Fold this sequence. Notes:
This protein is α+β, with helices and mostly antiparallel strands. It has 14 helices and nine strands.
Amino acid sequence: MKAYCPLCETEADLDLVSVQEDITVRGENITVPATYLKCDAKGHIVPSSDYPDDPLELAYREFRRRHNMLQPEEIRDFRLSRGFTQRELSSLLGWGGATLSRYENGALQDEAHDRLLRLAMEPRNLIALIEAKPDALPNETLARITSSLAEEALPHSMPLRAMYDKYMSIYQADDLTGFRRPDFDRISNALRFFSIPPGVFKTKLNKLLFYADFKHFKEYAVSITGCVYAHLPYGPAPEKYDVLLAALQYGERTILLEERDFPGYVGEVVIATTPPDISLFRPSELRVLAEVKERIGDLTAKQVSDLSHKEKAYTCTASGDLIPYSYAEELTI
C-alpha cells in the first residue's frame, strides 16, 4: 500500500509483515505473533493504528496464562466489583499509589502481589484486610463493603493461618524441615525478631530466617522453626512465604508490609507491630538468632541474596526444588 513513512518523510510503498517474535519474560522465552508495516524504500518499521497489538503485551498475557496469574482486566474487574478506588485498594494492600494502576494498565505484576490479590478476592480474607486497615476507606465505603462481605463470607471459608497450616501439614519432621514439624508460632516470632522497627526488606528477611534455621541445624541437628525452604531466583526462601506473610499481616496482625520508594525501584519492608515472644526459644536458638542478625543483619538485601547464592544449599539444588537441611553442614557462617 502507498502511505506516508514518517522516517523517510515521504510517501512510500508499505508492506504488511507478519512474523513470530521471541520475547524473554523473566527468563522465560515466549513466542508471539507480531504484525507491522515495513517501508520498501529503507526497511523502516512503521507503526500503524490498524495493527495495535503490542508483542510485549501479548507476551505478558501469555506469561500470566502459563503461571495462572491475574490478567489486567481481572484485577480491574475485582476492584470495581467491590467499589474500591485504586487508591483505596492500594492502601488496603500496602502498595504504593502507582502500583495498582500499572498492573491494571498492563504492566506485569510481581508474583507475590498476584498471590496477595488472589487472597484478597476471598471474602473472609478481604474482611481481615479491611479490619486491619479501616482508615484506608471512607466511612460510607467501609459500611457498604463490610456489609456485603459479611453475607459472602461462608462458614467454610478458611482463615489465612489455617490455610498456611494446611499447606505445611503435609511435611513431617525430616530432612526438609530440620527434623521439626513446621511451627507457625516459632516461624512468626523468628520473623518478628528480625523485623523489629525500622523493619527489614522482605527478600532479606527470608534469608535471615534461612540462615538461622540452617545454622542451628548445623550446630544442633535440629532447626529452630521447622520451616521448609525452596530454591527461588533471589535465593532460598520459605515455602509459601507470601501466604505466611499474609497470615501474619492480615490474620495475626503482628507485622506490617510497607512499600518504600528508592532510586530506581520500590522495595517492600516488613515491620513487626508486636514484639517477638522470645520465651518460645531455647538459649541455643536465641543465641543463633542473635548471631545471624549481628553477622549479616547490616548487609544490604542484595548482599545477603548474593551470599545465599554461594551456599551449597543453593548451588546444588535446582530452581523450585525444596532444600534439604543436610546442606547445612556446608553453611558458610
